[in-house]
Amino acid sequence: MSPTASSGGFRSRSKKGRAASAHRGQRPQDAHRQHGPGRARTSRPGRGAPTRDIRGVDKPRQAAYATLRKVTDDAAYGNLTLPHELRARNLSGRDAAFATEITYGTLRHLGVLDEVVRACSNRLLENIAPEVLDALRLGIYQVLFTRVEPHAAVDTTVNLVGASGEQKLKGFANAIMRTVTRTPKKTWLEKLTPAGEMAAIAFRTAHPKWIADSFSRVIGIGELEVALAADSERPLVHLAALPGEITAEELALATGGRTARYSPYGVYLDGGDPARLEPVKSGLARVQDEGSQLIARALVEAPVEGEDAGRWLDLCAGPGGKAAFIGALARMEQAHLDAVEPAAHRAKLVETACAGLPVTVHRADGRASGLEAGFDRVLVDAPCSGLGALRRRPEARWRKQEADIPGLASLQFELLKAALELVRPGGVVVYSTCSPDVRETRQVVERAVRELAATEEDAHGLVAPMPDLGHEKSVQMWPHRHGTDAMFFAVLRRG
Ligand SMILES: C[S@@+](CC[C@H](N)C(=O)[O-])C[C@H]1O[C@@H](n2cnc3c(N)ncnc32)[C@H](O)[C@@H]1O
Questions:
Q1: Which intervals carry biased composition (Basic residues) (predicted)?
Q2: How many whole angstroms from 364 Cα to the centroid of ligand 1?
């Protein structure tokens, strides 16, 4: 029986057929074959996420669908939107956990799910209403990646499509969902896995291929799958005990966490909402990835030639995570930190984060800050692609554009150049990114060494006893190796 016949509603209305092609092991000629989420048709006005109760759809799935709609239509962040949708529906416990699993899972697998839709439909993805496409993505994720009963996934998907105002497309959705359920997950994935080792790894770990290429240039192909898979694992919450305010041991006791492996200021929590913890509410501790703590500390620990006069600079400070940490160390060392940030709202965040600390915030472009040269220590925590923090935002991997990297690399080089002009002879510049992409890391540093006669120092000792930091003088951290974001830093001196 063809999926059309079994769909109980779908009718092919033209010779070309309007909806699901039978699952015949071949794809429509005109389908885009690139592996990535499709660009769906624009939503019709008033057809966004339904806020009313949807008949035939339980509340966790309603919350997941509403989040998905906001992410795909309004470019909202899934991890910020979902908590609102859960609260709006009074969801907690197992219901909230289920909603979270299917929302984050769907967002992480967008490109893979769209490949399945393409394989089941003779419509171009671009021609499928976004309300329908999101319902299909959510439904297919449940069928292929969870233990949800297939009929529950099919029924709720069709009901979501009906409730979204696309009544006429219920049959289309039904046909696609039934086509998906007829084939086991393993077969689907085998059938859709693209040729070529790199493309296959990217597909299996649900990443665009260009990100797999980027990681493999640094880590090699042997470890690539593990490195990419780590982007889909929930990170521990990392807290930083603000130096001089509370020790990591005290913080661990106060929060029920445990002290970190590498940062002497770090504490790990298994979960929960850290904003509710007393030490965080009172500002004694901050939520901060351990890698960021280590970079902030490295700025202060790196040896300088001659006396450290206590003139320190953070050239890209917003929103102020590292500035607060460095500011707290500056207070202990009777030093002072200048913090530069061009974006007004981010400069405000730096002021708030550093309140009470010896930190002066300057709203300026780091390339032309107007500050007087002669700093002992300068941090360039450069704006970057953020490829090192994909685990923090489930949809992020599909939103990033490789085309942005050359522009970022130019800006990064210009900021590093400015830092090398602002540091005094014998002082240190720490250049860091939350990206492992070599165009933003080694290539920027090597260009500074080549064109600006900067010298690079060995940075590994500054994060001891952290192992496996790469073969260069710089430090490259990885989630799967160190439990941190994939942060990079190098230590430089002016030529
Ligand atoms: C990676 S973030 C810094 C994170 C920060 N150090 C922290 O730990 O919270 C990069 C920052 O650089 C800022 N930025 C962008 N262009 C800049 C420029 N031309 N000069 C200085 N900062 C810039 C961005 O607004 C952003 O706040």
A1: 34-44
A2: 11
